[in-house]
Specification:
D-Maltodextrin-Binding Protein, domain 2, three-stranded mixed sheet, 40% helix, globular, PBP_domain, Phosphate_ABC_transporter
Length: 305
């Protein structure tokens, strides 16, 4: 009887071991660098350009990526809480955030893939399309401005609020004259309907508006900005961003903290590669690597019609 029980236990352990191995193998089969499914957290100010990247990536590979748009603060909290994750940020990880991953024994792979910009917008009725960064900073500090009736942000926890608060050296935005919604779309709609308000949004919401947002984008002006170290006003164009003239440019990063060779690695390589960089270039943002152009040289000119 004892021998039978012994054999039974041994057999049960063997079956359990095989099943666990199959389960682990099944998980590995589900996701590779170009196959499977994964969730990517994306800074809401960057959603349009990442949606384009995902659409092309999924069309080329047997992969399904779920995008979850959040404010920067919410996104970082989600990323560090996950056992493994992928995120798109307009900044690199801080020392404290890196320490959290060190405790998890994960070394995040950081890929810089583009340079974006924060843009100021005003109602089309406002004929003045110039603004000094100094005026915006002073308004953030609670000082009144003859040019600014109010500042409108997408979200109190967003990357745009963080950057402007850092420039103004304030811990929180003023209660008077500064408003926040939830999305960049709401900011554009509000400014399009209200004179004297200055919206603060991610540039790619203007260069790549959703079809249902085009009518609102057409009702706002994108302002040229004078920085603290310049005497000139610069529009947030690709050329001005590339030459370092526009004062509110910011680098964009893919933070791959999966800890294994999954879709995070494949997607990062795709976005930083030739096709991904062409998508960035077409979007109006500045790619990290300028895509090459093929030139065909002909020895003969054909007159055939």
């Amino acid at each position: 009887m004892f021998k039978i029980s012994k054999f039974f236990v041994l057999g049960f352990v063997c079956v359990l071991f095989v099943m666990c191995n199959k389960s682990d193998q099944s998980k590995n089969d589900k996701e590779t660098i170009l196959k499977g499914s994964a969730t990517i957290y994306v800074d809401e100010t960057l959603t349009p350009i990442i949606e384009d990247q995902v659409a092309v990536f999924e069309s080329k590979y047997d992969a399904k990526i779920k995008l979850v748009s959040k404010s920067e603060s919410e996104l970082v909290v989600s990323l560090v809480k996950e056992k493994s994750g992928i995120a798109i940020l307009s900044r690199n990880l801080t020392l404290n955030e890196n320490k959290i991953f060190e405790q998890k024994k994960i070394t995040p792979k950081i890929t810089k893939f583009a340079t974006d910009a924060i843009a100021f917008i005003s109602n089309k009725s406002n004929k003045d399309t110039l603004i000094e960064l100094k005026s915006v900073i002073e308004f953030m500090q609670g000082k009144q401005s003859a040019k600014i009736k109010g500042l409108v942000f997408d979200n109190p926890n967003s990357s745009t609020v963080r950057l402007m608060s850092e420039l103004a050296k304030v811990n929180k935005i003023p209660e008077k004259g500064v408003y926040s919604f939830k999305t960049n779309e709401e900011v554009i709609k509000f400014v399009a309907k209200n004179e004297g308000m200055i919206g603060v949004i991610g540039l790619n919401w203007l260069t790549q508006p959703m079809p249902d947002m085009q009518e609102f984008v057409d009702k706002v002006n994108v302002l040229s900005v004078k920085g603290s170290k310049s005497n000139n006003y610069y529009f947030p164009s690709q050329n001005n961003i590339a030459e370092g003239k526009y004062p509110l440019a910011r680098d964009l990063y893919i933070i791959n903290a999966q800890g294994f060779s999954g879709l995070g690695m494949g997607f990062s390589s795709f976005v930083a590669g030739d096709i991904g960089q062409r998508i960035i270039l077409k979007s109006g943002l500045l790619p990290v690597m300028m895509p090459g152009r093929k030139i065909n040289i002909r020895n003969k000119i054909s007159n055939d019609k």
